[in-house]
Amino acid sequence: MNVALIDYGAGNLHSLAKALATGGTTVRIESSLQQALAADAVVLPGVGAFGPAAAQLQSGRAALQAAVGSGLPCLGICLGMQLLFESSEEGEGAGLALLGGHVRKLVAYRLPHMGWNEVDITDDALFAGVDSLTAYYANSYVAEPADPTEVIAWSTYGNERFAAAVRRDRVWGVQFHPEKSGAPGLRLLHNFLAQVRQ
């Protein structure tokens, strides 16, 4: 199985690629979204700013939308999750619009939201075998899905409860970093790969 990890100038590619490259999975780092669509799944990594990342993805936006519409699995992590939506307060440019909704700044005393936080998970297949999850976050912005039923996990920071994970069909997004979240985070990535294989 081939997974394309999209390089749009964000960091953290190595640790995420290593976490994904298990059980016979081949991970290719791709700077071209068009070329990435030949893979069995696409992963949008975290770290970076919305505007520059969205600009780099624009040329492949329509092709990705069509591929996802035809069943290509996609996972967005941190910034990658935010790019799944239509727009962001963080920067100009259009998101991938694979999910309806927008990204806004967290209302909190201290930003960024950095460190470990509990995640209230649901019974989505992404969390199979995960009894409890404390995940690593590094974000100042959060997604507000147009359809609240697409939220499959929540976290709270300060007085704000926000979407920690979302899903529509075979598109998932997580606001935290599973590759930095210990064994439960790695299980989550393995669960995503298991869904890709199905």
Structural description of this entry:
- The chain is α/β, with parallel strands linked by helices and 198 residues long.
- The protein has a single domain, classed as Rossmann fold (3-Layer(aba) Sandwich), CATH 3.40.50.880.
- 25% of the residues lie in helices and 33% in strands.
- It contains 6 helices and 12 strands.
- Strands 2-1-3-4-12-11-10-7-8 form a 9-stranded mixed beta sheet.
- A hairpin with a 2-residue loop joins strand 11 (160-168) and strand 12 (171-174).
- 42% of the residues are buried.
Order of strands in the sheet with most strands: 2-1-3-4-12-11-10-7-8
Query: From the 3D coordinates, which CATH architecture would you assign?
Result: 3-Layer(aba) Sandwich
Structural class call reads: alpha/beta
The overall average pLDDT, rounded, is 95
The CATH homologous superfamily: Class I glutamine amidotransferase (GATase) domain
Q: Beta fraction of the residues?
A: 25-35%
Report how far the terminal alpha carbons are from each other: 11 Å
Roughly what percent helix? Answer: 25-40%
